[in-house]
Amino acid sequence: MSTIAVSPQRRTVLDTLVKPTLRTDATFALLGAAFVGALAQISWTVHPFVVPFTGQTLGVLVVGATFGLRRAIAALALYLVAGLAGVPWFAGHASGYTNVKALLGYLLGFIVASALMSWLAAKGNDRTVSSAIGLFVLGELAIYAIGVPWLAHTYHQPLSWGITNGLVPFLVWDIAKAVVAGTLLPGARRLVDTNAQ
User: Fold this and answer.
1) Which residues in the chain come in under a pLDDT of 50?
2) What gap in Å lies between CA 171 and CA 88, rounded to an integer?
3) Domain architecture of the chain: domains with CATH
4) Which of 39, 71, 178, 194 could in theory staple to 136 by disulfide, Cβ–Cβ 3.0 to 4.6 A?
């Protein structure tokens, strides 16, 4: 029986390129939040669903897979807090709690997903296409795990309603995003590793 040793020196892409300092961490938190906010504007809603199709989850997953744990959590926490405080960078330029109440679970899931992805990327799951795609799929599932129950609770519906309205319609779109990002990430990783040597 063979075992795989995980090197403790492995780091995510930006942790390899840019030394963590308070200034760089704050800069990347702002850049990551703005990146997710920009992709959130790629947004459309299909009747009768209340959850929009957006590009923001791709931003969340890219930040999670590349920024490192502290920077990724900081970026997504900033995205959430600033959006709730009035920065119009949620999907469709929305902001404030009342405008995203039903979707708050997904927004909280962004933070959890980014942390999970950073942790897994640091263990080497961003090195091959298959493991990177799996990494992105797990990140999507983490978002749904919080977003779908919250959506159902907000509308006073059973979990099955939340799955039908807040998960199933989005699976193909989200799998496509996971495949695209997961295919590109290992190449970026190899480029970074080559330049870091």
Assistant:
1) 1-9
2) 26
3) 13-196 (1.10.1760.20)
4) 178
